[in-house]
Design goal:
184 residues, single chain, alpha+beta, 4 helices
Length: 184
């Protein structure tokens, strides 16, 4: 079984930019996003060769129930597809988002920062993908000071949720509180 082990954080400020080692532009659409955590996503990425391309991804809760805190571990099956197929599938997707992804040179896992665009701007989220050993080590991880709130398991911040219900459509008080946190 392919597992994705990931923690997510709300980012404040620009201090993370000194750690950027690559960037890419991503557009993704959701062909299926169910309330039980099953998603089918298509993604096109443009930028550095290491991350450029197109993929079809299925994500689901882990078989056998939760492993660690909610939202931390999911099954992930990702397959490269021809860019023409990705373009056609994106046209079928009713829920989409775009973002600039920045790969970081931080220790402890594979760190990226996503700077969301359009209706999800000015949201900035850091993600760190961990290996299975991290589950055995009580999730010990050095969190940068610019990660001001953990978003792991908060469904409204999942990419599928942000595609369906973007930040610009959130109730004003919730949006302003998020913006206050991210500018502190």
């Amino acid at each position: 079984m392919a597992l994705e082990i990931e923690r997510r954080f709300l980012v404040s400020g620009q201090q993370w930019r000194c750690h950027v080692c690559w960037q890419a532009w991503l557009e993704q659409g959701y062909l299926l996003a169910s309330s039980d955590g099953l998603t089918v996503r298509v993604r096109e990425a443009r930028g550095v060769a290491a991350v450029a391309g197109a993929w079809l991804t299925l994500k689901a809760p882990p078989a056998g129930g939760p492993m660690g805190p909610e939202g931390l571990v999911r099954q992930e099956f990702e397959y490269p597809i021809p860019e023409g197929d990705a373009t056609a599938l994106l046209a079928l997707a009713g829920q989409k988002l775009s973002k600039r992804r920045h790969g970081l040179d931080l220790p402890g896992g594979d760190w990226v920062v996503d700077v969301f665009e359009a209706e999800n701007a000015p949201l900035v989220v850091a993600e760190v993908e961990l290996d299975a050993a991290a589950l055995q080590q009580d999730l010990a991880l050095e969190i940068p000071v610019w990660c001001v709130a953990e978003l792991t398991g908060r469904h409204q911040f999942s990419n599928a949720s942000l595609a369906r219900w973007p930040l610009a459509r959130w109730p004003e008080d919730e949006r302003l509180e998020l913006l206050r946190l991210s500018s502190s």
